[in-house]
Amino acid sequence: MFFRVEAFHYINSIVNVKNVYFGRLNGLELVFKKLAHTDELERVDTYLCRGGFSQCMRGSSNNNQLCVIPPSDSFQLSCDMTQAVANISSRLTGPVSVSDVIGLSDAMQCPSPRLVRRMVHRYRERGEFVDEHGLSVSEKFSLLYTLAVNPEPLILQMFPHGEKWPFPAYIGACGRIIAEDYAGVPLRDYFYADWRIRMKLALRLLHIADQLTDNSAGYKLYFSDISLDNYSVQKDSLEVTINDAENILIVDEQLLAEDKNPGYDEPHHSVYDYCEHGNNCLTIDVVSLCSKTQSDFNYYALCKSLLSSFSDHDQGMTGGLLHSLPASLKQSQTIKSLADECAKPPPNKDRFVIKDELILVLESVIKSLTPATESF
Q1: Confidence band (pLDDT; 50, 70, 90) for 59?
Q2: Residue 107: CB partners within 8 Å, gap ≥ 6?
Q3: What's the distance, CA 192 to chain centroid?
Q4: pLDDT tens sequence across 61-104
Q5: What is the 3-state secondary structure (H, E, C) of the chain?
Q6: Whether the model pTM is above 0.85
């Protein structure tokens, strides 16, 4: 199974385009997000009118196709939504299972029982219940609905900022609006910053890719919507955070290691995707990512979309985040070549090796910067 992501975003009006609002609560800067655009919400409502989550609870071997919310040319509801919700809720018996969630979002293309337990146990909108892995019917409906509309609030809860994951802190939700900690300005604002700042940001982005790919929790998080707008930067610390976690595929490495299906431990190497001018497109091989304990996808996506000279954004932002390094920097050409090779490796060269080399060079240059050279 493949799905294609076209990352071609620009915030002309952050309120109208991204459904993002800014505010304060008790002195804390917050970001408020509407989970989806109106037409997307109407599409999910139409899905519920057609039977909704019941499709995902038949125990069929085709679950991850049955559960995908189909596109619709008409969003006019032809049912009583209250009755539709009541009908669906009457079938939501028992604890949340893999068959309930599979295919409801990018995150749940290949969920494991362990991942489902993590999601339910950390679900902040749940009340008191007897079974620690159970939810009331209304809570289960809310969780499944959130997965279908936008799994970001669930991902922020499963992989919280307080445990050093590179996402904003989740504050809470009210209806279809969620509140997150303010994580800074868009990475876009730093595209023309001093080269030393951009080099530090590039290194932080590579470290995030490392963490998503290999971590002690035993989950692979593959981030497929790479853009200058989907990362935030704190001005003082230059801490980088993923501010849009909707398009993340989660794979349970522990389950793959337990099942030991043929080829599970053979590395998956992403193939360079050619795009039309102006689009940072990524084709995601879901089957391979869901069946391998190792994949270089996060490094490929990052280098192709943000770091290499192949990166091509709107507003004339071409050449990647590592563009225009000074000729006086002796490692300048090496850095450019490694960033390009990370996106499009030459024959017989491994992307894992290339990204490690790129990290080492960046670390070396940054370490060599004296207080005087950092005064920019």
Answers
A1: very low
A2: 147, 151, 154, 155, 248, 249, 250
A3: 25
A4: 344 444 555 554 444 556 777 887 888 887 787 889 999 899 99
A5: CEEEEEECCCCCCHHHHHCEEEEEECCEEEEEEECCCHHHHHHHHHHHHCCHHHHHHCCCCCHHHHCCCCCCCCCCCCCCHHHHHHHHHCCCCCCCCHHHHCCCCHHHCCCCHHHHHHHHHCCCCCCCCCCCCCCCHHHHHHHHHHHHHCCHHHHHHHCCHHHCCCCCCEEEEECCEEEEECCCEEHHHHCCCCHHHHHHHHHHHHHHHHHHHCCCCCEEEEECCCCCCCEEECCCCCCEEECCCCCEEEEEHHHHHHHCCCCCCCCECCCCCCCCCCCEEEEEEHHHHHHCCCECHHHHHHHHHHHCCCCECCCCCECCCCCCCCCCCCCHHHHHHHHHHHHCCCCCCCHHHHHHHHHHHHHHHHHHCCCCCCCC
A6: yes
pLDDT for 10 beyond 50: no
Residue 374: predicted pLDDT: 57
Angle between helices 38-49 and 137-149 (to 10 degrees): 130
Q: Summarize pLDDT for 223-280 with one digit per residue, the tens.
A: 999 999 999 999 999 999 999 999 999 999 999 999 999 999 999 999 998 876 555 6
Provide the pLDDT for residue 128.
Answer: 59
Report the distance separating Cα 137 and Cα 86, nearest Å.
10
Residue 140 — left, alpha, or beta (φ > 0 → left; ψ -120 to 50 → alpha)?
Answer: alpha
Q: How many CB atoms lie within 10 A of CB 338?
A: 24
